[in-house]
Design a protein that fits this description.
This protein is of the alpha+beta class. It has helices at residues 7-15, 61-68, 104-117; strands spanning 19-24, 30-35, 38-39, 43-47, 71-78, 87-98, 131-143, 146-149.
């Protein structure tokens, strides 16, 4: 699905350093975790990186949730004490997990983009690890005086 994203929204999504990814378990329990990500205009990519984890990558709750329910949402926001400067983008979509051998070209491009954005990933072997891929189906942008979605609806 192609979106007509205005340049300001696209720049905001690409420049932010962190997002919050929401997934839902098979028992309808929600989970929200902070993630590092890149956005190519249609898809978001986020690695299961080498930061310390209590379980193997394929056993992380967010990964298990995506496997049973691919519907996800992400919030990318910017806070300011001046509430006239508050803004956020809500991305909704369908997620899957890609492995290096599943689609080597797409996995490699995601790794390259992630390493370009985050210097820390250059020292990590994210090229050998799973990556969460989210196909965006809806974008909602909010800022003072602006309430619109990618499909022109207001919320």
């Amino acid at each position: 699905m192609a979106f007509d994203i205005d340049e300001d929204t696209l720049q905001f999504i690409r420049e932010q350093r962190i997002a919050r990814l929401a997934t839902v378990a098979d028992d309808n329990t929600p989970l929200v975790v902070p993630i590092c990500y890149v956005f190519d205009g249609q898809r978001v990519y986020s690695p299961i990186d080498e930061k310390p984890k209590n379980v193997p990558p394929d056993q992380l709750k967010r990964v298990r949730n995506i496997r049973v329910n691919p519907s996800v949402a992400m919030v990318i926001d910017e806070y300011s004490e001046n509430w006239n400067e508050l803004r956020y983008v809500l991305l909704s979509g369908s997620a899957d997990i890609i492995l290096p051998n599943d689609d080597p070209g797409k996995h490699a491009r995601a790794v390259e983009q992630l390493r370009d954005k985050y210097v820390q990933y250059r020292a990590m072997e994210i090229d050998k690890r799973p990556i969460i891929r989210v196909l965006i189906t809806r974008i909602k942008r909010w800022a003072p005086g602006r309430r619109e979605t990618s499909n022109g609806q207001t919320d």
